[in-house]
Amino acid sequence: MQLSHEQVHQNWWAEGDTPVRTDSRVLYLVDGRSAMLEICRHCLKAQKYIYLANWGMTPLLELVRGKDHRRGPDGSPEQEELLAELRAEGLQEADIAFWQQNALSVRNVLAYARSKGVEVKVLLWKCSDVLSHYSPKEAHEQLTSAGVTCLLDDSAQGVLHHPIESLHQKLSVIDGQAAFVGGVDPLIEKEGEFDRWDLPDHPFTTPLRQTAKGATPHPWHDAHSLIEGPAASDVELNFRQRWNDVVTRHHLSEDLLVPEHPIAPPLKSQSLVQVARTIPEHTYKFITTQGIAQLYHHALNNIQRFVYLENQYFWLRAFYGIDIPFAGTESYEMQQNVQALIKALQRGAFASIILPDHPNVGRGFSDAGLMRIREGAPQANDEGRFEAFCLATSTQEGGRTHYRPIYVHAKVAVVDDLWSTVGSGNLNNRGMRDDTEINVATLDPTATRGLRLMLQGEHLGIVHTEELLALSRLLGQQHQSALEEARARNALRYLEETLGDPARALTLMHDAAWRNLNLYKQGQPLVGHLLPYLSAEEAQQQGLHFREEHGWVEEEEKKIS
């Protein structure tokens, strides 16, 4: 599908920061397994430098696990097949030996890169103890002991800042040729909960995600991206600006400054690509921008047929630590976004959004945002043209079925199968204005439609984990074996036949979600992961036990680890 002249020249983009690139491409990665596998492979291939900036990091987190790491004993056909794939990816024999002989943790991989003479710099948010989801001091010690240069960024602290402002970007840059941005931090939160590595089938329990106590953390759904070409240099620019700002402000050695490197060479591409940021006032000296808010404002106003959203939040008001929606100040950017959605629904478009049943905070804030849309576009609501979903997984043990919500952390928007964005920016005041964020946006029907098909296929349970990774690589024009490419093309063909019509795809999602709700009430296993997103009032009307801090899917007492 080619873009029309009108579509190309619509206003989709942010102004005043990085340019729109015509010579770059984006590979979308669904869930932590795919994202971390690609990041690990690129870090092992690095020859010059690796730059990482994250909201949080667990240096002992294993980036590659299970059969991705080892398919069989040394010399077995399965293991030799894996090694052949790594060679085809460009890994050298020393890299492959390291792969086979070591746990592929963040610290081990970065230490190995340093042993080859690769420069490695890591920038981590120095969060306050009150809001601590990880230990910046411990992460800093573990990384520096491995030879990594690590800085703790305190730029969000001070009386001029939003009370709970964070440095929320999740990015990697390798040799200036490839960059990653999205929702995935290489992180396991304190107490072993919320491990960002997860598989697309989101198993209820798995030894690949067990904590020290033998429990499996909540399933985690996310999205990330690999950027190649000159747009990767825009991600590097962001890292360089942030890093050098910290070095300069704290009067650290000039030897720590990151120099400007040549822009990545252009690639043949049918995509228009832009990296956009949210940088709040008073945080850094180099720029203040609300580029991500601009992206959403333009894209949502361009909706002709539909929009598909996934997000951790959907807030009209700012959250200050109290879960009372009317207590926060209004978010102007989110008011604009909601109004754009309402107008699109009034024009006859349709919209869907995936949200977590149990966000860490602000459940009522998201409920209020959804209610505003339903009140503003009642006909669309009555006709089923506006749908909200959540995700869950199930298992059977001891003669009964157990359920767990899947934490939705992805920040995704797809408009008309033309334009898409993935990044760290949430649909709330923080993603649009008050936190430091980074997204990539793509105007490309093939990449965008492929992203929607992968996500909806995963949630419906009609595409397997291995097919998703192969499909990502096919859509992103990455090398893979003939067998994997054939698998990807077969998966794509099936998804096109089943979900190619976005209106039919929404109907299938609706039907699956409400069938699963009936299965949930009957104590039966879920098919796929979709459930309707229910407010407190709606859950009670369905006879479900709703708790503000846990939603309605979570079992009140953990019956299974």
Automatic annotation (TrEMBL):
InterPro entries: PLD-like_dom, PLipase_D/transphosphatidylase, PLipase_D_fam. This is Phospholipase. It comes from Tengunoibacter tsumagoiensis. Residues 163-185, 404-431 form the PLD phosphodiesterase domain. GO terms for biological process: phospholipid catabolic process. Pfam families: PLDc_2 (PF13091). Keywords: Hydrolase, Lipid metabolism, Repeat. One of its GO terms (molecular function) is phospholipase D activity. It comes from the Bacteria.
